Amino acid sequence: MSVPRFTDHAANERTFLAWVRTAIAVMAFGFLVERFDIFLKIAGKSLGKTFTMSGQVAGSLVGLALIIAGAAMVAASMLRFVKNRADIIDDETHPAENDRLDLILAGLIVILGIGLAIYLGITMLQGSK
């Protein structure tokens, strides 16, 4: 027994799993960023400096946003996987899909990365005072 268009189905599944792995990494990084204040407290004690609460709140917000972005990536990849599976099963030819969702998710990660860089810069400047 063979599966019709097996290579297409396998490629669709590999792409889905790659998105899920990436989303898990983004969520784990978000958790790390959210808990970065623990590292700052320990580093601050050893350097004899204290860090402000506003920096900790910003880190928590950026971390939470990364976790939400990772969850959104899983949801988007799941929807895309199901749609692609239906398109592969269907014998009709379908036009290329719009990449808007992929671009929105990538843009969100870029914005969060810039926010994280700003947060770290501000934290470092406040810690050097």
Automatic annotation (TrEMBL):
<keyword id="KW-1133">Transmembrane helix</keyword>
<keyword id="KW-1003">Cell membrane</keyword>
<dbReference type="InterPro" id="IPR003807">
    <property type="entry name" value="DUF202"/>
</dbReference>
<feature type="transmembrane region" description="Helical">
    <location>
        <begin position="101"/>
        <end position="122"/>
    </location>
</feature>
<dbReference type="GO" id="GO:0005886">
    <property type="term" value="C:plasma membrane"/>
</dbReference>
<keyword id="KW-0812">Transmembrane</keyword>
<feature type="transmembrane region" description="Helical">
    <location>
        <begin position="57"/>
        <end position="81"/>
    </location>
</feature>
<dbReference type="InterPro" id="IPR052053">
    <property type="entry name" value="IM_YidH-like"/>
</dbReference>
<feature type="domain" description="DUF202">
    <location>
        <begin position="8"/>
        <end position="84"/>
    </location>
</feature>
<dbReference type="Pfam" id="PF02656">
    <property type="entry name" value="DUF202"/>
</dbReference>
<protein>
    <submittedName>
        <fullName>Putative membrane protein</fullName>
    </submittedName>
</protein>
<feature type="transmembrane region" description="Helical">
    <location>
        <begin position="16"/>
        <end position="36"/>
    </location>
</feature>
<keyword id="KW-0472">Membrane</keyword>
